[in-house]
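Thread: quick sanity check before group meeting

JM: Hey all, I'm pulling together slides for Thursday and realized we never actually wrote out the predicted structure for the chain we discussed last week. Dropping the sequence here so it's in one place. If anyone has concerns about the input, flag it before I start.
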Amino acid sequence: MDQILKKPTRAKKSARNKSAPKAGIRQKKERLILKAAEKVFSEFGFRGATTQMIADRAGIPKANLHYYFPTKLVLYRKIIEEIFSIWLDAAQSFDENSDPVEALSRYIDKKMEISRSHPFGSKIWANEVMHGAPIIQDYLETTLRQWTDSRMVIIQRWIDDGLIDPIDPRHLLYMIWASTQHYADFVHQIKTLNGGKKLSDTQWDNAREDVKTIILNGIGATKRADK
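JM (edit): ok, ran it. Output follows.
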């Protein structure tokens, strides 16, 4: 017991104190590189982008970039993993709420916000898929398929309970993805049609509400009655 309650030695305390700043520096460097890589990959795609271009955008030597990410492929897949994880987190509303109106409203809200805050990641994903997903096909065949199948079960349950119209659950998910990610993937088109200006906060709020209204009304969604 005495050994368990023994206080850390000065050497151990010193090692911990030194490791904390190093971890923080590493995280900052990785975020800097990832942010630069998102922009470069979204502009030039995987084939057109180079690690030198990314290093220049990040303002660091190329050797430093390869210290954190040894290859362009590792860096690219890290960005794909991040945007995919963000999208999956946004879908927690399916698991947390059995009411289709509330669950889908929260999901659309989060997807719209992700399109606003992470437009480059969304563009990279879209460009990759449009070219046959040569780098991320494994994501599509495993994680995305499993996630989609599990959400289709929930949507089918809503249909069986008479809470939404009888539709193919896949098409509802495709509609939500297409509608929300449009605001990231086609931001230049939206900006052009908005008089050359980015959407204001009010315009984003209106867009989010309109997308929810169109989709929820389109599937005849009704709130689950309290038991």
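AS: nice. The chain has two domains: 10-70, 78-227. The two ends are 53 Å apart (CA to CA).
JM: adding both to the slides.
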